[in-house]
Design a protein that fits this description.
Largest sheet of chain A: 6 strands, parallel
Strand order of the largest sheet of chain A: 3-2-4-5-1-6
Number of helices of chain A: 7
Strand content of chain A: 15-25%
Distance between the termini of chain A: 25 Å
Low-confidence stretches of chain A: none
CATH architecture of the domain at 42-167 and 178-185 in chain A: 3-Layer(aba) Sandwich
Radius of gyration of chain A: 17 Å
Order of helices and strands of chain A: HEHEHEHEHHEHE
Oligomer: homodimer
CATH superfamily of the domain at 42-167 and 178-185 in chain A: P-loop containing nucleotide triphosphate hydrolases
Mean pLDDT of chain A: 87
Largest interface: A-B, 81 and 81 residues
Helix content of chain A: 25-40%
CATH topology of the domain at 42-167 and 178-185 in chain A: Rossmann fold
């Protein structure tokens, strides 16, 4: 879509190229379908640029393996085998974060979410990835498991050239304030409203 | 997101399984970012199910190669080589449709769009693909190059189990009427509003 011209050229002392290359903080929110799907679609583009991708799945989808995980991890393998694209790491909260030795303490979701965020902060400080997908990260924030102001401050002050996309409903105002791009996926019609459940290949 | 329960169970004589497996007509519309990205994210899921994917790019992105094309075509190759996932075909209007012998008549966009739609109709009748991505197909409809009622009727009467996703702004009311799922990607904030142009890995 946006290959057009910007609406205004700001007086920020940056060249067009510098401005163009500023890393983005993106938020996909709203009640409609497409928030996570678009974030994983973005990961496709990033992979193609050879970027390092870190996916961090909070809440729901963490329990089962979604199609995107299989495909993106396969693309990560392809990168290791042939050098095509970029590396992919996929971490999920569901059964204990992959980097953590504590497995199976999935009961304590609040602690697991806070641990996930701590690891993401470490990685942002170390400039580990080029794209971070923080999937459904709005929920632990909304539930008070992770502090919204800490998230907003950390993300807006992250060093280097790291893109971040956060998905989920009810995004915190503090997060929206510091985001560069916010899309509200608004539900106009959903098959579930007429009694159709989610299906393979469409929902996961 | 929607792993929950439907809001109502309709009296349509279908079992839950039959209803669950009904093929979907999806529309991603609105002024925000994420319409095409989410459609290609959906294609990732479909590939993982072993489905045959047909992408038809109308308008804009047809002129250049976007990251998703490289990656999805690479996944299609992987399918041919190893049997993983499903086959992928990617057709774009920009420099003449891939199936057409007439190349380079890109000046006549109206005719090219009408030809694209005719081919899609043939494929729907032949049940060629499991997922059709009709990217930015709303524009040729909005511009009168393709008839909205023909599209609505053809898509709602398509045989078998073929999923279709249409992307683009200003979706025709006739199309929205027959769609099962409509998401309006609403722009809340976009970097272009503050003078930032599109960038590699994010916009393409």
């Amino acid at each position: 879509m946006p290959q057009g011209q910007p609406l205004a050229v700001p007086e920020d002392g940056l060249t067009t190229r510098q401005r163009r290359n500023r890393p983005l903080l993106m938020v996909h929110t709203g009640d409609g379908k497409g928030k996570s799907t678009a974030a994983f679609g973005l990961a496709l583009r990033s992979w193609n640029q050879g970027w390092s991708i870190g996916v961090f799945q909070f809440v729901k989808s963490a329990k089962w393996r979604i199609g995107e995980q299989t495909v993106l991890e396969r693309l990560g393998e392809l990168h290791e085998q042939t050098g095509e694209g970029g590396p992919v790491e996929w971490h999920k909260m569901g059964s204990g974060w992959s980097w953590s030795k504590k497995q199976g303490d999935e009961e304590d979701h609040a602690r697991a979410a806070a641990e996930g965020w701590k690891e993401i902060k470490r990685r942002l400080a170390a400039e580990t990835h080029d794209l971070y997908v923080l999937d459904e990260f709005t929920y632990p924030i909304a539930w008070g498991w992770v502090d919204a102001d800490d998230v907003a401050e950390t993300l807006s002050n992250r060093p280097g050239r790291q893109h971040v996309v956060v998905t989920g409903r009810r995004a915190a105002p503090a997060l929206l304030d510091v985001a560069d791009l916010v899309t509200d996926m608004t539900k106009v019609k959903h098959p579930m409203d007429t009694g159709q459940k989610g299906q393979r290949g469409i929902e996961w």
